[in-house]
Amino acid sequence: MYKHDVLIIGGGLAGLRAAVEVTRAGGDVAVISKVHPVRSHSNAAQGGINAPLTDRGDDWEGHAYDTIKGSDFLADQDAVEVMSVEAGDAVLELERMGVIFSRGDDGKLGTRRFGGQKIARTFFVGAITGSAILHVLFEQALKLGLNVYEEWFVTKLIIEDGRCRGVVAIDLKTGEIHTIKAKAVIMAAGGAGRVFEPSTNALICTGDGLALAYQAGAPLMDMEMIQYHPTTLARTGILMSEAARGEGAHLLNADGERFMEKTAPDYMELASRDVVSRAEQTEIDEGRGIDGNVLLDLRHLGRDFIEQRLGYLQEVSVEFLGIDMAEQPVPVQPGMHYIMGGIKTDIDGATNVPGLYAAGECANVSVHGANRLGANSLLDTVVFGRRSAVHAIEYIKSVDDHSASEEELASEQVRLQALLDRPKGERVATLRNDMARGMTRGIGVFRDQSSMEGALENLENVKSRMSGFSIENKGKIFNTDLMFGLELEFMVDCAEAVVAGALTRKESRGAHFRTDITERDDDNWLKHTLVYKDETQEHGTRVETSDVKITQWQPVKRVY
Amino acid sequence: MKYAFYPGCVARGGAPELYDSALAVMDRLDIEHVELTKAACTGAGVLQEKNLKMGDILNVRTFAMAEQMGLPIMVLCSTCQGVMAQANHRVKRDPEYLAEINKHLEDEGLEYKGTTSVKHLLWVLIEDIGLDKLKETFTRELTGMNMAPFYGCYMVRPSDALEFSSNPQRETSLEDLIQSVGGNVTDFAGKTACCGFPILFINQANSMKMVANHTGTAKDLGADAMVTPCPLCHLNLDGYQPKARRQVRGDKADLPVIHVPQLIGLAMGMNEKTLGLKKHIVSTKKIVRMAEALPSKV
Amino acid sequence: MQANLKVKRFDPADEGGKTWWQEYKVDVHPDSTVLDSLIQIREQDDGTLALRCACRASICGSCGMKVNGDAKLVCKTRVVDIAPNGEQLVIEPMGNQHVIRDLVVSLDTFFSQIQRVDPFLQPDHVPEQGEYIASNDSMENLLTSMNCIMCGCCVSDCTVLEVDANFIGPAALAKAWRFTEDPRDSKRDERLKVLNDEAGGIWDCTRCLKCVEVCPKGVAPMDRIMELRESAIEAGNTNTPGYHHTESFYNSVKKNGRLDETRLAMDSAGWTNIPRLLDLVPIGIAAMRKGKLPPLIPHKSEDHKKVKDLYDNVEGESS
Questions:
Q1: Which of A524, A527, A508 is nearest to A516 (CA)?
Q2: Contacts C278 to B, Cβ<8 Å
Q3: Which domains does chain A have, with CATH numbers?
Q4: Cα B128 from chain centroid (whole Å)
Q5: Per-residue confidence at C306, pLDDT binned at 50, 70, 90?
Q6: Where in chain B does DSSP place strands (E)?
């Protein structure tokens, strides 16, 4: 009999921030996560968190505009305004919880520059900002005695009378399947990087949250907006923070030129990520790369500076590639990193399914539009994590009771057992690799009709094999093999939505860059794509569009 | 080969058999040495808990004395080895800190320039003399003797201060030595673990568990004796073995623990008096008899 | 390149809990890590192998396990570095923690230790406006502890935890250190007192350096524990055998240039602690019988007054 007022799926920044908020309001809340909260992928965010601090002469409109411009005007401006207005308090609150942000000489919070912004308003902890914040939020969770269903894997949302009423989940440690009933559910399960290969994302980023909401009838918005981070370490794909460029690192091609001059003479290496990734890819494709990479040069920053401000990057470079960044430039290339697309929500995190909220990378408010600025993701998680919680607390006042149904439990038990009982077939990893490589090929930094159709064809092929994969591990205790099969199903759903969105948008905007339609088309396409799961349709999807919300800033040509 | 000899406090105090056997072995090998009689205790890591800088000053002073003599330092104790290596590592990487320390040494006319090396007798035997040359001095092969190695924490950690990456032989020095005397290595998981001496006077229960676990396990695996390069480990593993074994396993202290020079001395044919083998708490009679029963090399 | 692994398997559901060794050989890229090899085994050869891993970039802390007896983060352990000639690598789950399945251990031990040290900031006021003011140096100083990714390697290999499950442990103590050093925390003295007084606290560390050696992030937990001891003493916590031991050692060298072992033993026991003093009698007698009881008037180093002078200088400096 597991039940709570609010159940939060995901123990990363958005999830924990929401949990803290509900606990403070006296609500009965629990977090459910397939990994221990501190293992959440929030810990991989490196560079910092943005906030305009008005006491220093920065204004929220400046941050909002940079964000909107960065989004190539696809962001909903009311949502961006909310985020920029609340940012200052959000960051201060984290500091007061104990985050060890870097300081200036005056002992106040220090800043660094980040992409797409001329003003330095990124607050940071070395190159481990995400980890530093996550650990402090977890400390707060310990302090508040937060209930965590640790290493429980959600397989389905319980939807009753069109409302979200809880989840069905496997306790990985025992293999037992349970329901957890809740009056409201906040989906904070992160992104879907593993739909692509390679990706900076952890192996756990399999789009579970996106798929669960999608299956429950919530639309996935702007899924074609896939961010390729410009500086992922050669061979390993490990993220090398934008902070390096924020602190002054240069990008060089094989001829030793700072090639960003050609496409972004003003912002140079700190143009928006999609602009930088495309510039790099162009250098590589046109033969001015080195083994498929360009070079990130930090030598002029000096060893002490690197070790103090960018210590983790040096650690990675030395440990994984044997390169000392103070002596040599580091080979990097664009790598899939973040999905701007996600579960459509309003500015309070509400989806179109009553009782279901979403926050963090799995959600799309939209604050990032067609391209996310660096250091805005961490901000997004805490602002909308909090807002979702606030709204959920209000919402549950109108919910009298918990669902009593065990139907979903019964059907999931049957489904999962059937999966386990399948005769020997293809391995999950084979299907996943086939799908993910096809997605990267077809929906990459540059794409066109034929590449995207190729991705669709590849995905359809993978889908046709989905009923044939088998699970080797038939046991109950910590059966990760079964979990990978379930994750594969989620990933295929996400991929389906990405491809549908990509084929729908007939323009280039932000990260969706079509070499066959290179211009932005505000007349026809200042719109969001909304993909709904619809088995009656040819590829299982139905795509609608909705208008972008404009408040203050009319779209202009984006120049860096 | 000449060394500035630093026997350490325990070799001159609670484990005099180490000092005596070491001198006998060095004599046989013609290892010239000058004892650093003015050098202070290394602090063993304990002094450093109260004041790290004081500990570093005392050790840098010792390094400076040896440097003045133009000699490398030889020690008999894992703890001395480790503590000195750590101090050396620290000051070599921080010239400002070294300068501060040298200021304190001005009165004695000492100044450390960073060139002194510190080596345990065990490493001297393997690295400076070489096992082949060492074997030439052996008069018997300790065939059939099972020896369990027990390094002592400070002889194997931290590996960077002990320069393991450029000296990989240090990782298996004890095993190599045991094999060179003709013995069999009784391998066991605790060989690089802690003997419990540092907490002997602080949490005796835990200390006894460690002694009992290590000596008991080695005995269960068939060891005839344990060899250790650290007299502090020896104090615990030998001196407290009776209490530990009784308390934790309910059995008797039946595993003699010997020092490195004693092992070598046995292979060199030296007698138990010279090697101080009668001074152990846990009787070494059995292994002495085993060694004496072995044929001498012609 | 071939990676040659011998993995310790465990299935609690099999015959009430079966443990066995399984050998695997996989062809991997020359730069592969041990984790890459394990993932390949799991994906291509044996889907039943259970292990935790996520980020592959040494930041999430999931993939701690024992390789050839020492705990490591396998995502940053290259096969070619530890098995240059194709040697077999022995892979086991982390130590000192209950094994759930194969290479997956329960995190309960680790996190219950963390909970014991009140691991959250306890300020005594909230700034009226803006942030707490703190120097950058004071924040950077905390990075050593903040770098901890809670991987459990230190707990796995701690030699005290092997014999005493009540020890708070290296990870939790390193975390506690962070709060005693955070200028915004108001409970420094209280924290130090508890860590000093509590059974299983800072004085139970045996200073074996295992945690320093195995920590993949340079947290050096033992060094943090030593700093906690120094701080605890400075804050006036002088009621433990550990304190007496340290103090005695320090003073012995000051007086004699060398360690007076007999005196050390008695000081550490505590002169008013009759039971503990009596406890020393058997070993004292045994040593005396063998003619090696250190003399009551201790040996001094030659010219030991110079050592005292050094002490006076240093102590004068800090006062």
A1: A508
A2: none
A3: 230-335 (3.90.700.10), 407-521 (1.20.58.100)
A4: 16
A5: confident
A6: 2-6, 32-35, 73-75, 118-120, 146-149, 184-185, 225-228, 257-259
Whether A9 and A154 have beta carbons less than 8 Å apart is answered as: yes
Residue A326 has pLDDT above 80, yes or no: yes
Nearest C-alpha neighbor of A380 from the set A100, A12, A21: A12
Contacts of C192-195 with C-beta under 8 Å, sequence gap 24+, read C192/C228, C192/C231, C192/C232, C192/C235, C192/C237, C193/C232, C193/C235, C193/C237, C195/C117, C195/C168, C195/C228, C195/C232
For B17, name the nearest residue in chain C, comparing CA atoms only: C292
Angle between helical axes of A449-464 and A428-442 (0-180°, round to 10): 170
pLDDT at A460 over 90: yes
Lookup result for tokens 């995905």: A459
* A404 CB-contact burial (10 Å; exposed 0-12 / middle 13-18 / buried 19+): exposed
* Amino acid C319: pLDDT: 59
pLDDT at residue B298 is higher than 80: no
The whole-number pLDDT of residue A229 equals 95
Q: Which amino acid is at A358?
A: A
Interchain pair C208, B157: CB under 8 A:
yes
Could you tell me which chains touch chain B, where touching means 3 or more CB pairs under 8 A? Answer: C
Q: Which residue of C has its CA nearest to A98?
A: C121
Fold of C108-234: Fumarate Reductase Iron-sulfur Protein; Chain B, domain 2 (1.10.1060)
Residues 196-215 of A with CB under 8 A from C: 202-204
Contacts of B57 in chain C (CB under 8 A): 310, 314
Q: What is the pLDDT of residues A352-374, one digit of tens each?
A: 999 999 999 999 999 999 999 99
Distances (CA, A) of A64 to A51, A69, A123, B273: 10, 9, 16, 86
Determine the residue among A319, A431, A471, A481 to mutate to test chain C binding: the one whose Cβ has the most chain C Cβ atoms within 10 Å.
Answer: A319
The domain covering C2-105 belongs, at the CATH homologous superfamily level, to: Beta-grasp domain (3.10.20.30)
Amino acid identity, position B219 = K
Per-residue model confidence (pLDDT) at position C313: 86
* Interface predicted TM-score (ipTM): 0.94
The continuous run of DSSP H or E covering C287 comes out as helix C274-289
Instruction: Classify burial at A28, counting beta carbons within 10 Å of its beta carbon; exposed 0-12, middle 13-18, buried 19 or more.
Output: middle
Helix (H, G, I), strand (E, B) or coil at A148: strand
The answer to whether residue B30 sits within a structural domain is yes
Per the CB < 8 A criterion, the answer to whether A334 and A232 are in contact is yes
Q: With pLDDT > 90 as the criterion, what percentage of chain A qualifies?
A: 96
**Cβ separation A473–C47 shorter than 8 A:** yes
CATH (domain of B219):
3.40.50.11810
State if pTM tops 0.90: yes
pLDDT in tens, B105-161: 999 999 999 999 999 999 999 999 999 999 999 999 999 999 999 999 999 999 999
- Per CB-CB distance under 8 Å, the chain C contacts of B168 are none
pLDDT, mean of residues A174-187 = 97
Q: What CA–CA distance (Å, rounded) separates A388 from B123?
A: 64
Q: Which of C55, C82, C182 to mutate to test the interface with A (most CBs of A within 10 A)?
A: C55
The arithmetic mean of pLDDT across residues C211-228, rounded, is 96
Mean pLDDT of A192-209: 96
Burial A12-21 (b: 16+ CB within 10 A, else e): bbbbbbbbbb
Domain total in chain B: 2
**Backbone angles phi and psi of C65, in degrees to 5:** -160, 165
Residues of A involved in catalysis: 229, 245
In the prediction, which pLDDT does C165 show?
Answer: 96
Range of weakest confidence among A434-443, A539-548, C234-243: C234-243
3-state SS string for C219-257: CCHHHHHHHHHHHHHHCCCCCCHHHHHHHHHHHHHHHHC
